[in-house]
Fold this sequence. Notes:
Blueprint: E1 28-33, E2 38-43, E3 52-57, E4 83-86, E5 89-91, E6 99-103, E7 110-117, E8 120-127, E9 135-144, E10 150-157, E11 162-169, E12 174-184, E13 189-195, H1 204-207, E14 212-215, H2 218-230, H3 253-265, H4 269-282, H5 305-321, H6 325-329, H7 331-339, E15 347-348, E16 353-354, E17 373-374, H8 376-394, H9 398-417, E18 424-425, E19 428-429, E20 432-433, H10 474-477, H11 486-495, H12 524-536, H13 540-550, H14 580-595, E21 597-599, E22 603-606, E23 617-623, E24 626-634, E25 642-645, E26 650-653, E27 656-660, E28 666-672
Helix pairs in contact: 2-14, 3-4, 3-5, 3-14, 4-5, 5-8, 8-9, 12-13, 12-14
Amino acid sequence: MIDVKEHVYHDDPKIGHVDVRTALKEVSYFFLGNGLIQAVVQYSPQGEGTSLGLIIMNPEMLCKKRDTLTFNADSGLENTQVTVEFENNSQTGPPQDLYVSWFHKSAIPQVLASWQKDDLEIREVFCCPSSDRPILTREITLKNLSDRNKKFTLKTSTLQKSFSKQVSLRSQDEKKVILCYYFEQTSNAVDITESETYPEIDALAYWKNIAILDFSNAAYEHLFSIASNQLPAVISQAGKVDASIWQYNREWVRDQAFIIFGMTVGGHHKLAGKLLDRLIKEFVSDEGDCVDSGEKRDPQDVELDQNGILLYVLENYVTWTDDFEIVLQNWQKIVKIAEFPLKAVFRHEPSGMFCNCREYWERHQAHGVKDGLELMYQFFPSIGLKSAANLARKMSKNALAQRWEHYAAKLREAVLHHPKYAMVNEKGFIKRLNPDGTIQESIIPREDSGLPDGVPLADKNRTHYLSPDASAVLPIVFEYIAADSEIANATLAQTELLWNQAWDIGGYGRVNVDSEADSAGPWPVASLIIAKANVESKNYGNVGKVLAWLHTLPGALSGSWFELYGPRIAPPYAQLGILPWAWAEVLALFIHHIIGFQPKDNYLRFRPRAIPGMGNIQARLPFRNCTINIAIRQVPKTAAIQFECDTKFHRPADGEILIPFTGLDISITAIVP
């Protein structure tokens, strides 16, 4: 049984410098990194916290914000700002004069900060220019706008090192100062030095060979680029990534698996493979169960979806990269991953499905979750077993392939058609069934649940309904059922009830707010998952409102979204963190669902979606050792999607083509309504 103390954290945002807080008013965090050094530019425009702070972290050590390498217990991030000292009077750029944004001058992600003080214009550009050195550069350009000469001292510091330089500027002249921040792993400290020239930019080759998408729609361009920029920046060289940065300091197979999917379709293949290999080797026990939040669980508390999503993502990675070596090296562990949910301890004999006391969003017995059948614990094992069967066939393990295919089909048949235990009704998918086949409508937390006052699930005056639940749309996302089916339509109609439940800022909650064990507020990840399902079902209005909503949130400037947006009770809960999984969902939304590039073993499936207002898209996708060039032109009043391709293809259905894969580069054009 899970100890409720596992959910208790002691990082109190009211203690210490204001920069300790993650959710500063209107804050944006810009993430940069190369696996050897991780950096964050903090932009706090409302005067709460350091207006322009520089956070540097050891990528291999997950930590709270107050424990980062440039954070001072007394002054927070203040000393990391550049200060300009005129006649012993230190001056900085006040928040109202400061502007920070992504700087698209180079293919390498860069952050631009600009401000002005006393006729002095300051531009700062932050960048990780190297692929194999733990270095961050800060290029500072100073321009004298006045009609007289100026002398001043430029200052900044890290915890261990101060930098000071006297600068003289004639009227209208400008000068550059290049600072290099080095992370010293042996001392776990940050050094700072000045460089006369800009360091060699050897990271350019990496950033030119990932998925490149150019949009005529500026909002879409922003969403895609910030996700592609930041997701690889938060993954260490060893493949470590915090599930929610500065929040949990823990790792989940589920979160990492979805991150791998996003990295794979986004062209970050080498890093995706490293993360995937680490998950299989280190996060799966010898029995085959996957850890969650860094913990191995008893059978009653195991998250059974994790085995399935890991196998599905593994097959997708192999399809995209042709890296079958990862399967060969890990085959014995892969067999255990596939077999684990089939253990008798989970089997619900009357239905043939799986049963325990955990649910998808991690509520458990202390929260009132009783023994039962969770939709996600049937669906993900089903698609995972099908993926495992495909891999087994490539290994010439035909008996295993047949076994896993049998169970995959049996699970799907039970979920959709069992006479007593089918997990569908007139409202679409059913989240959870009791062992007798009745619907588990609600939960009642135990007295020792540890839920703090103010959490909806702790309120004894409300009924804690389990449905609707955002996870119910995942069978639509993964094409487990037809996206235009009655089940899909009914499910999506129910999930619309999750929008603006107990708030007015927009966004979907992950669960019915009455049963929320955390803050009452919308989740970007849940909203993106629902958007993907609506793309599949061609409910484009619901897609557009999610994408528009993401632009309204604090952090939208940088594209670093918190796990949720609500009144986090911290402590006993952890402060809100930045969720890398959300970036992965953005990449999957655009490439897999909207552009619709979905490769299989021997052919390429291309099925673009004509989102109103999408505009034109040019895409260059790395696939195995080739490049897939895609042009989508949106022409209003086009009767049907038209395709052109420089190789043979056939159309199995309207709006879709299949292209035999020849191992050569391919160019595809689609004209969509």
